[in-house]
Q: What sequence folds into this?
């Protein structure tokens, strides 16, 4: 593979992604502070969902344990700050490295199974991670979690200091990471490797008989998806100054699946829309009624009936043919 | 020269001896046909050669190297390509993407560092043209007619540029004209590859094959030139189903 194979294809869909990125940036200037606060949080979670989509939407592997890699990122960064006094960038990278290693180990084990067994195995490992966080309560403060002080959330560069706990900076940091992750994903799914992932999703035996080793390609998808989760987790800890065991619970393994399904599995931009819609849906309904989860469920069922391929998946079928 | 060889190759499904202790030799450069009644074990036999199906017993040798335990994807890399009897394409991808993946696999193996987008595009288009599917580039495989799906299957096999091409009933669903086209294509491929052809259409077999192996109930019933086989009494019996 030459470097040129990694250059993005500059077609209209590339520019569509750039337009979405630009639109997200412009929201900072038009949204009231309450909503830009929500969007900063949503954008971090979108990064998580983007990675989940690589594994689920593109490679066709349904993991029920991605909270493990999200929390590996979160605690990899958070614990380094809390106990080792690491500064922001080293802590951020230690979160990513932690998630990468955990995903590599768990992925190489879990990918020996397929189908329902794979779902169960990934879920069991994630539950183990969750219980470990609770067990090492002394360091992690378990369910209650711990706060990451403002001092560790500063980028210092010579005389310039950027405070990532300030709302606008937080928004910009989340936006920047999301933009990079989105573009990398776009390049990945159109790369030779991405095509093999899709091939495995569509017909594994066929792909194998074209000479591709399914295990190797699935593992690469699994690890990259884990890295995305780790980036999101570490970023969350740093931007919102908190790490807690809730983020390692089963709920956070199911959420990315819902976001991806809602937005469109196997569409690069799907999770962006899925996460935003779902987040605002929950936000709006929870103000109206205490039984909001019931209504969220109803809305999801209706959406699945009306648009079984998710928002962008359905749009791709009707209008945006060939949307990556 | 023997290119591929099996020793006592067997595959039993419970009590069914689909393939039973077959000793078989494929010579380099030939077009070999495998014929036999339905359920004779032809697909199972060839599936073991390409690695899709694990043998329950016996060995497979490729140029005297034992490849019995080599995975299917590695065998593809060693130059063995297989096209499925029951069409197995990427049904939700278009023709272009189907063939591109096959071409990509080969280019990545052959010249890992020189696979440019342009080269990939050129070769994919060439392979589509070769089987006459150039006009269907953007059509989803699932929307193709059965015959065209078979052609797509063939294009994917050819794209691998294999040393041994194994075709499992490739002409099923072809129109008369497509069968003639197919014959020409196979002769062309056989100039630098070895072809193993499972085929029911006896006209195709007789006009293409250098030699024929007849399987019946998991065993080799007869082997020889098309003339030998045509006049073999045991083969007649097996096909007519009388004793
Ligand atoms: N996966 C399987 N499980 C159980 N039995 C099988 C399996 N695959 C094949 N068989 C049996 O093995 C025998 C040989 O089947 P095979 O498909 O190899 O025959 P064939 O010669 O290719 O027949 P056809 O001409 O119909 O394609 C048949 O009796 C079939 O029912
Ligand atoms: Mg068969």
A:
């Amino acid at each position: 593979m030459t470097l040129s194979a990694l250059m993005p294809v500059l077609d209209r869909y590339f520019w569509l992604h750039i337009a979405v990125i630009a639109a997200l940036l412009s929201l900072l200037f038009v949204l009231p502070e309450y909503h830009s606060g929500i969007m900063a949080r949503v954008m971090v979670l979108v990064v998580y969902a983007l990675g989940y989509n690589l594994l689920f939407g593109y490679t066709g592997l349904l993991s029920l344990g991605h909270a493990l890699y999200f929390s590996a990122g979160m605690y990899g960064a958070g614990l380094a700050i809390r106990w080792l006094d690491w500064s922001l960038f080293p802590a951020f990278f230690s979160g990513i490295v932690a998630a990468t290693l955990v995903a590599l180990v768990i992925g190489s084990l879990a990918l020996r199974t397929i189908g329902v067994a794979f779902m169960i195995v990934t879920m069991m490992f994630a539950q183990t991670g969750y219980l470990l966080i609770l067990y090492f309560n002394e360091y992690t403060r378990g369910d209650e979690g711990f706060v990451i002080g403002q001092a560790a959330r500063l980028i210092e560069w010579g005389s310039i200091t950027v405070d990532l706990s300030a709302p606008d900076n937080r928004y910009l940091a989340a936006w920047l990471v999301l933009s990079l992750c989105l573009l990398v994903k776009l390049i990945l799914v159109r790369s030779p490797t991405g095509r093999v992932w899709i091939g495995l999703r569509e017909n594994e035996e066929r792909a194998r008989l074209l000479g591709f080793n399914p295990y190797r390609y699935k593992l690469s998808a699994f690890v990259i998806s884990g890295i995305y989760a780790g980036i999101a987790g570490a970023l969350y800890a740093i931007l919102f100054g908190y790490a807690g065991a809730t983020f390692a619970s089963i709920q956070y393994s199911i959420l990315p699946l819902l976001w991806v399904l809602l937005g469109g599995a196997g569409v690069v931009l799907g999770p962006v829309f899925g996460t935003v819609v779902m987040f605002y849906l929950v936000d709006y309904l929870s103000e109206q009624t205490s039984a909001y989860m019931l209504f969220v469920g109803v809305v999801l069922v209706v959406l699945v009936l009306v648009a079984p391929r998710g928002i962008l998946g359905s749009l791709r079928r009707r209008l945006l043919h060939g949307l990556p | 020269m023997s290119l591929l060889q099996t020793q006592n190759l067997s595959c039993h499904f419970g009590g069914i001896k689909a393939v039973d202790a077959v000793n078989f030799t494929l010579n380099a450069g030939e077009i070999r046909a495998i014929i036999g009644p339905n359920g004779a074990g032809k697909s199972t036999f060839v599936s073991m050669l390409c690695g899709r199906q694990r043998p329950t017993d016996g060995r497979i040798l490729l140029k005297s190297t034992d490849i019995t335990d080599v995975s299917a994807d590695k065998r593809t890399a060693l130059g063995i390509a297989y096209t499925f009897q029951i069409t197995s394409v990427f049904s939700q991808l278009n023709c272009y993407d189907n063939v591109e993946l096959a071409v990509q696999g080969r280019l990545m193996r052959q010249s890992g560092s020189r696979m440019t987008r342009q080269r990939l595009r050129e070769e994919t288009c060439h392979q589509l043209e070769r089987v006459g599917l150039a006009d269907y580039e953007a059509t989803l495989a699932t929307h193709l007619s059965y015959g065209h799906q078979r052609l797509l299957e063939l294009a994917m096999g050819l794209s691998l540029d294999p040393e041994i091409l194994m075709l499992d009933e490739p002409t099923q669903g072809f129109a008369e004209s497509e069968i003639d086209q197919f014959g020409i294509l196979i002769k062309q491929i056989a100039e630098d590859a070895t072809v193993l052809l499972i085929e029911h259409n006896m006209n195709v077999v007789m006009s293409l094959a250098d030699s024929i192996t007849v399987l019946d109930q998991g065993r080799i019933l007869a082997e020889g030139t098309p003339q030998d086989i045509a006049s073999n009494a045991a083969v007649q019996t097996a096909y007519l189903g009388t004793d």
